[in-house]
Write a structure and sequence with these properties.
five-stranded antiparallel beta sheet, 2 domains, 26% helix, OB fold (Dihydrolipoamide Acetyltransferase, E2P)
């Protein structure tokens, strides 16, 4: 009887797997190899599941260019009456298209920046110009302006003047850059990033105790925003034009 039962375990069917087998091909079949989601896709799935971002905010991958475009957060723009125009950076959460009584199209954009969630209205001209980039989950730079009503019942109307893709701006080539340098050491640091020819016009202002010497390199150089920010982290002033 014991021998009979032993044969049952020895004669495994084709559907059975030995979990303790040393055969690597069998072990590979047990676990399916998968690739992790890309950064933007992962955050989009997080928002779909719980209504907010858990691991990161989409805008954090673009903060390196905020100073270049004079980005202001939406709350600061709204609360400061002296600030009439500003660029804000935000991730688009939802788009709702509607029509006026006259049949003109407009849309309500639900957006989030690093501090808050808010809504903006855009009308047909801005909507049609930017329809391709108004995708949920995309990060945008929006140029806003304020209009104040007259009279005692004063209110503020926010107009969206321009919309652009942050990703496209971040990856776009740098046309021109100005370096303000104060020592030979800083010149050496910058020169390490200017070895390859490219599409960026490079201007150098060398500030000495007596005067300011201005140079422009004859040939354009290869420079990206990552390189610029590495130099800025070394206390080198760089202005992108």
């Amino acid at each position: 009887m014991i021998a009979k039962n032993k044969n049952i375990f020895d004669n495994k069917s084709a559907n059975q797997i030995d979990l303790f087998s040393e055969d690597e091909s069998v072990q590979d079949d047990i676990l399916i190899k998968t690739q992790d989601w890309k950064f933007e896709e992962r955050l989009s799935k997080e928002f779909e599941a719980v209504g907010f971002f858990i691991s990161d905010h989409p805008l954090n991958q673009f903060t390196e260019i905020f100073n270049d475009y004079k980005i202001t957060d939406y709350s600061s723009f709204i609360s400061n009456d002296d600030l009439r125009d500003s660029n804000i950076a935000a991730t688009l959460l939802k788009v709702q298209e509607r029509k006026t009584a006259k049949g003109n199209s407009y849309a309500v954009l639900k957006l989030t920046d690093l501090l808050s969630v808010f809504e903006l209205f855009i009308f047909s001209d801005v909507l049609e110009l930017n329809r391709e980039i108004l995708k949920e989950g995309s990060s945008l730079i929006l140029t806003l302006s304020k209009n104040f009503s007259n009279g005692e019942n004063r209110f503020t109307r926010i107009n969206v003047q321009k919309i652009a893709s942050l990703k496209e701006l971040f990856n776009s080539p740098i046309n021109e850059v100005f370096f303000d340098l104060k020592s030979e050491k800083q010149i050496e640091k910058v020169s390490k990033f200017l070895k390859e020819e490219g599409k960026t016009l490079v201007n150098i202002n060398l500030v000495t105790s007596k005067n300011i010497l201005k140079f422009r390199l004859k040939n354009k150089r290869k420079l990206d925003r990552k390189s610029i920010n590495l130099l800025r982290n070394q206390e080198i002033q760089a202005i992108i034009n």
